[in-house]
From TrEMBL, chain A:
It comes from Triangularia verruculosa. One of its GO terms (cellular component) is cytoplasm. Signal peptide: none annotated. Residues 79-97 have a biased composition (Low complexity). This is Uncharacterized protein. It comes from the Eukaryota. Keywords: Leucine-rich repeat, Repeat.
Automatic annotation (TrEMBL), chain B:
Residues 6-67 form the SKP1 component POZ domain. Belongs to the SKP1 family. This is Elongin-C. One of its GO terms (cellular component) is nucleus. It comes from Triangularia verruculosa. Keywords: Nucleus. Essential component of the SCF (SKP1-CUL1-F-box protein) E3 ubiquitin ligase complexes, which mediate the ubiquitination and subsequent proteasomal degradation of target proteins. Controls sulfur metabolite repression, probably by mediating the inactivation or degradation of the metR transcription factor.
């Protein structure tokens, strides 16, 4: 062979390369003594010392390597110089390169497992019991739907931090340092706030006033966030993680929707949503105003709210007693998002994007409940649709699992659904809706409080907010309510609504 | 016409599952297969050319889960492994295991 390839230089003997006396001893010494070999086990002063258990373990951990031997040699010699417990990068991990995964909870790397390293001071034969097995980082493995077409989808690039947000960060930092619970982020021209910016607000702890002669008492933080006069288009979701938030002002922004997870802010007392582009509010805010929260002030003026239609509103006011529940008819859907009732809420993207003025919605008499006509059920469907607490359909269960995927995976699935024609019609839309709902805090049935993936009923209730003394059509605020089955509907005041459900066939 | 209490479901990679007929009738598709003048109705053996074994296994699990819980309330949700959930979604759609009422034909 004339052109023999040049081999990489051989390492010196692997034992020298390890560079530690212990490793040399390990390689040359006879196999480690098990408990029953010639010499007696060492006797200690106390036999119930828990440290003894560490010595009974005779199982040896072998190092595992992946890749070429000369690459290993480099990594290995540098590692062993630092000590046995340092992690060597190549150990145990497969040579596949995984995409970096940063966002969300899933991005947290597993903590290094703590190993007991007790030393009695008695040398027992150089067994290396603290091996590196626990240090193997378990890489995030995107197993599902690994198709070459999908691997081209790059994860969302890290958003650049705008100038306004930098100022916001500085102000928040200042507040954290001074223990100032009033976070003033107003008039900055912010159009979005990232979770990293918001998160430190939760760390604010007010500096307590200490007066002579008074007991020191730790006061609960009373955090107030002012975000008025900005250009926020989306509610900053991470705000809901600030549990002690009591005042939140979002006046004069461009919000179009309030997420359901706002229900987590149990300590909220004042919420200012005036001068936005809101059309309705989630029913969670109603709960905050009720027993579950402390919300007292809700400012809602100057939004293009949905309004009760004038004629039907007046007839309800005339015929339905002194303080009627003003609500729309109920919209009935299936798990694919198809609507079966005559009444439809203007909730599609086109509807929401289109009008900036108030839409008028029909009002139903509280003693009536219009059910979908021209629908026939099978027995199974009737059970699934009508039993609020019964078993769900397999479709829903699968959808639920799918929505819980971390975001990059979800983007891949979405892309997959877009490319491939073989999927049922509307699945992509359903999945996107469900994923959006999951991202903004999940959906809970307004009637039975069960969590759900897709709403099967929807309707709007109009309520008075603080300040209004009587039912004035102009001042009512719409709250969107959702139900998890076709029986999760508003309470019908006079006669039972269940009787008018169509019979199953 | 096979009158056995059980029917056999076969996945495309050859896994066979023997299921209580009554439980499997939750699926409208299987119901139709067993009713009509098809070979399936005679043999009580349904072959699915699109569904993989592990997916069909989960479907069968769902049949029994649903059969056991059909008239109960406060049913615990069924767990779906992530790696087959998209396939399962397709299978559920194919087998009619989504709550989808039929619009009555007006003609």
């Amino acid at each position: 062979m004339a052109d023999e390839q040049v081999l990489p230089t051989l390492p010196k003997t692997p034992f020298n390369g390890l560079g530690s006396k212990r490793a040399w001893a390990q390689a040359n010494a006879p196999p480690p003594p098990s408990v029953s070999t010639s010499s007696d086990p060492a006797v200690f002063s106390s036999d119930d010392d828990p440290a003894l258990e560490a010595y009974e373990n005779t199982r040896r951990h072998k190092r595992r390597y992946v890749g070429t031997w000369y690459d290993q040699h480099l990594a290995l010699s540098s590692d062993s110089a630092m000590g046995d417990h340092s992690s060597s990068p190549a150990v145990g991990s497969s040579p596949v390169v995984y995409r970096p995964f940063r966002r969300g909870k899933g991005g947290v790397r597993p903590q290094k497992r703590e190993f007991r390293k007790l030393d009695s001071g008695v040398y027992m034969g150089g067994q290396d019991s603290t091996d590196t097995e626990g240090d193997i980082p378990s890489p995030y493995t995107p197993k599902y739907f690994a198709s070459p077409a999908l691997l081209r989808v790059s994860p969302r690039s890290r958003p650049q931090i705008s100038e306004a947000e930098t100022i916001a960060r500085e102000r928040i930092k200042e507040c954290v340092e001074n223990g100032n619970p009033m976070v003033e982020l107003n008039d900055l021209g912010l159009d979005s706030v990232s979770a990293e910016t918001i998160a430190p607000i939760a760390d604010i702890e007010p500096i307590p006033v200490v007066l002579p002669g008074m007991y020191f008492r730790k006061t609960d933080p009373d955090i107030q966030v002012f975000l008025y006069n900005n250009n926020l288009k989306e509610f900053p979701l991470s705000l809901v993680n600030i549990e002690p938030l009591t005042v939140l002002t979002l006046r004069n922004n461009d919000l179009t929707e309030i997420p359901t997870c706002i229900g987590k802010l149990r300590n909220l007392k004042t919420l200012n949503l005036a001068q936005n582009k809101l059309k309705y509010l989630p029913s969670e805010i109603l709960r905050l105003m009720g027993d579950e929260g402390k919300l007292e002030m809700l400012q809602t003026v100057s939004n293009p709210w949905w309004m009760a239609e004038k004629l039907s509103f007046q007839s309800v006011m005339e015929h339905a007693g002194p303080n009627p529940l003003i609500r729309t008819p109920v919209e009935f859907l299936d798990s694919n998002g198809r609507i079966y009732s005559r009444f439809r809420l203007p909730l599609s993207d086109d509807d929401l994007a289109e009008s900036t003025s108030s839409l008028e919605l029909e009002v139903e008499h509280p003693s009536e409940l219009e059910m979908p006509k021209e629908v026939s059920y099978t027995e199974q469907d009737a059970k699934r649709l009508l039993n609020p607490k019964g078993a769900r359909s397999l479709f829903e269960y699968a959808l639920k699992t799918l929505t819980k995927l971390p975001e990059p995976e979800l983007a891949e699935v979405d892309c997959w659904l877009e490319v491939d024609e073989g999927y049922p019609h509307g699945l992509r839309e359903t999945l996107n809706l469900a994923a959006d709902a999951h991202r903004s805090g999940g959906l809970t049935c307004s009637v039975c409080r069960r969590g759900m993936v897709v709403p099967l009923t929807r309707w709007v209730e109009f309520h008075r907010t603080s300040g209004a003394t009587k039912l004035d059509r102009e001042l009512l605020v719409p709250f969107l309510k959702i139900g998890c089955s076709w029986r999760c509907v508003p309470e019908v005041v006079v006669s039972g609504g269940e009787d008018c459900l169509p019979k199953s066939e | 016409m096979s009158d056995s209490k059980y029917i056999t479901l076969v996945s495309y990679d050859g896994f066979e599952y023997v299921v209580l007929r009554e439980a499997a009738l939750v699926s409208e598709t299987i119901k139709a297969m067993l009713k009509g003048p098809f070979r399936e109705a005679q043999t009580g053996r349904c072959e699915f050319g699109e569904i993989r074994g592990p997916v069909l296994e989960k479907v069968v699990e769902y049949f029994h889960y649903y059969h056991a819980n059909r008239d109960q309330t406060d049913v615990p949700d069924m767990d779906i492994p992530v790696d087959i959930c998209l396939e399962l979604l397709m299978a559920a759609d194919f087998l009619g295991l989504d709550s989808k009422p039929q619009m009555r034909d007006l003609s």
